[in-house]
Write a structure and sequence with these properties.
- This protein has two helices and 13 strands; from the N terminus they run ββββββαββββββαβ.
- With about 180 residues, it is of the alpha+beta class.
- The strands form four sheets. Strands 11-12-7-13 form a four-stranded antiparallel beta sheet, with helices on one face.
- The longest helix is centred in the middle third of the chain and has 22 residues.
- The protein is elongated, with a radius of gyration of 21 Å.
- The protein starts with 8 loop residues before the first strand and ends in a 14-residue tail after the last strand.
- The model has no long low-confidence stretch (mean pLDDT about 95).
Amino acid sequence: MSRIGRLPIDIPAGVTVTVDGQQVTVKGAKGELSLEVSRPIEVKVEENQVLVTRPDDERASRSLHGLTRTLINNNIIGVTTGYSKGLEVVGTGYRVAQKGTGVEFALGFSHPVVVDAPAGITFTVEGNNKLTVSGIDKQAVGEVAANIRKIRKPEPYKGKGVRYAGEVVRRKAGKAGK
């Protein structure tokens, strides 16, 4: 049995989990998320706990068991506390500014780069070099943060670019001068 998949998920107060066939819907204080569970996996709600079971020990069932449990748990955490990812803009002249619901970056290009917030995602700018991406969907928050980082990845010689908060950029020595 999967060590992760067999663990029950406790439902906190203020959160409702409904199972309709293969559709699992989680409602909480911050919003509502739903998940389509793959076919062999079964989800049940019993006594303020969510139980995820699999019918057999086939390879596909085993791999989906722990994944499904983790996705449901992520949805429950998302509607109660939410998720956030911090980004830092490092470099001379590099900065970020709030522009309505989106943000505008100055990253050494000949033009400013404007990023609009997708549905369910909010941007918070602190100072002119820190950005926080937050929302209730863990996957969406991570994807938006990764796409912003992709605009100008940190380069290994001076470390300039957009990096995750706390990310360590491995530096290279560069050319040896004469």
